[in-house]
Amino acid sequence: MKQFLIYTAKVLLITVLIAVLMDGLYTYVFLQSKNRGKIETVFNSKSQNYDVVILGSSRANNHFVSKMFEDKGLKTFNYGMSGGHLFEASLLLKLMIERKYSIKNVILEADLNLSNDHQAEGIAALFLPYIHNSQTIKQHFQSNENFNELYYIPFYRYIKYDGKIGFRETYKIVKREKTNALDNLGYYPLAKHKNGNMKNNIVNLNPLKHNKYYEEIKNICKEKKINFIAVMTPMCENVAGMNYFEKVKKAYPEIHNYENAVVENKYFSSCGHMTDTGARLFTATILKDFFNK
Amino acid sequence: MFFNSIAFAIFLPIVFFLYWFVFNKTKSTQNALLIIASYYFYSCWDWRFLFLLVFSTFLDYYTGIQIEKGKSEKLRKFWFWLSILVNLGFLGIFKYYNFFAASFSELLNSVGLKTSPVLLNVILPVGISFYTFHGLSYVIDIYYKRIKAEYNFIDYSLFVSYFPLLVAGPIERATHLLPQVKVKREFNFEKAKEGIYQIIWGLVKKVVIADTCATYANAIFDHYTSMNSFSLILGAVYFAFQIYGDFSGYSDIALGVSKLFGLDLLRNFNYPYFSRDIAEFWRRWHISLSSWFRDYLYIPLGGSKGGLWMKIRNTFIIFVVSGFWHGANWTYIVWGFINAVYFLPLLLRNSNRNNMDVFQLKFDLDSVKILISISYTFFLTCIAWIFFRAKTITDAILYLKRIFTNKEFGFQYLDNERYNYELLLMIGLFVLVEWNSRAKIEPLSGKRSLLKLAFAIMAIMAFGTFSDYKEFIYFQF
């Protein structure tokens, strides 16, 4: 039995060693990541100057045409992330501040995403390679249920989220394979789809009265003297439960309601996402209303 | 609690420690601990079905004794049939009732009699097909006086509900496992080390091969109408490796875990995709089930004694029943039937026992022939797997038809956001590793075993699919 216990200890030691080595290797690769995604780009960047930084979910990513801001002389980048929640938007802004970004305006898409303050696992996982390299990321994840496993067990985070930060992603970074996430200054234009879903039911959706991460973003902007513009972006014609936007306005009076800025279905790719044409109409309205351009 | 879960990684060392350090005084204490652990393990799925397991155990234990004690043949027969009918009755209700009710109703509807079947809203108790077959073999062996009844309830309970084999086999025989549980186990370092190798290799098969293949196979089978011929062929190959990795991986882990407790279980897989004909495939695939059907169905039906037609009839019966054992769906029955059809030429030529020997490859014509035979057998197996994997027979036929009618062989981007060909390198490597170690139980033992073990652990960590978790396929059977 003693022999077996020694043998088992050896196997465990090998396992831990492999985990530590692979953790180090993967993290090193992620620290070199370029041209893959918005999170890696911000994390591995140095100080930047922006007139406008756009944050939010896909409803920010597909709705704010960065080039139109630039054409008006405003240095802009759209950091909206498809599938992201306010948890990730807040952390991304914190990282920008940590890297001493100089930002004049933050436009935050804050509407449907106000209904929860959870992390969007698929997006939040993209911060995890850097958890040991950034106090900001560590602290942001500290309230998570599985923080201890993610932080203390070597390589655990790469196994748990293997679809996002596992071998394939690491290999693509090494290969320097580009994605389109950073094209068009972060804006992702959508086309009209024949079979796009033009119905939505948000009857059961309610905005949280105090969304932790919304408040965080607001407070960071206040503290860093960044002009904070929170907007609700358009939905298609056929939505059940449109009073959600009124509930948001009631809970957060400072959020500007642009839900009706574009209404016709022809401007939508799916019910919650405008086409490029719709996005341009909407961006023009935002530029006019907030920047007098 | 799955073998590849964190919960099991905690459960196993605790049971191991208690077994060898606290309950190691006698075989009774060892067995008692394993039963408690097994019942806990089973109750992690659904504690309510624990009663069914205990009842099934008690039924076979009691009827086994009554059969042995039976003074008249009539009485022996009574207890025998009681056990058979109750066992099959439970299996029938939980696994097959809805299938029969729906099929019968469809039949009546097809002749113009409108009916709506009364379906039961029951879930299938995990492992029922496996522990029912344990009990059946035990009772049948006693009835035919091949073994003595077991009078120690604890020992018998352990034979039925031993946790490594409880939910997905291998289907054990009383003649093999009961003698082992009747003696106190002494720790054997070499056996335990073998166990570790098998567990690790089983995990490689499950999380690296099966679960990764599953993401591709699902993306192809679920969207077969938009797939090209190349993707559809790859889909069948990926599923072949998914089911092999999944089930043989499970069996390897079960056998490995059991070795840690000093108990040997029946080998369930012997590199089946290196078979030279379909008969050899069935001697290497799910061996405990194939041999069960051979011993308790094929031979009692007359086996091959009654001439060629009897042999053909019995072969078709066991394959169709074996297909039906897998699940209450026509696709499984057709899968069984196809395998019987594959068997037919071998029966007619009386060549089903031709490939019993161990082969070596050399640079000669015979070796080329062997490789062609292996490839052809694998091709046949993949065709049959399409029926096993498809949701309906129509889907399977359309899938096959599209392979031949689409005629496009380009790369295709799949729903899992990967290209159809991407997994081929991994499968090629896996086949190479298995080929080189086909004379052994697993590839990790032997020279430089610690290094091979390290590579296997690295492969699990780097190439395993964890986020898109798949249950072991055979749990549903």
UniProtKB/TrEMBL annotation, chain A:
Q: Which branch of life, at top level?
A: Bacteria
Q: Which UniProt keywords apply?
A: Membrane, Transmembrane, Transmembrane helix
User: What residues form the membrane-spanning segments?
Assistant: 12-31
**Protein name, as recorded:** SGNH/GDSL hydrolase family protein
UniProtKB/TrEMBL annotation, chain B:
Keyword Repeat in the entry? The reply is no
Principal localization? Answer: membrane
Name any GO cellular component annotation.
Answer: plasma membrane
The stretch of residues making up the signal peptide is none
Q: Which domain of life is it from?
A: Bacteria
Spell out the subcellular localization from the entry.
Cell membrane
Alphabetized, the UniProt keywords read: Acyltransferase, Cell membrane, Membrane, Transferase, Transmembrane, Transmembrane helix
> Which regions span the lipid bilayer?
6-23, 78-98, 118-140, 368-388, 449-467
Tell me which Gene Ontology terms the entry assigns under biological process: alginic acid biosynthetic process
A molecular function annotated in GO for this UniProt entry is:
acyltransferase activity
Which membrane topology describes this protein?
A: Multi-pass membrane protein
PANTHER family, sorted: ACYLTRANSFERASE, PROTEIN-CYSTEINE N-PALMITOYLTRANSFERASE RASP
Q: Which family does it belong to?
A: Belongs to the membrane-bound acyltransferase family.
What protein name does the entry list?
Membrane-bound O-acyltransferase family protein
> What is the originating organism of this protein?
Flavobacterium cheongpyeongense
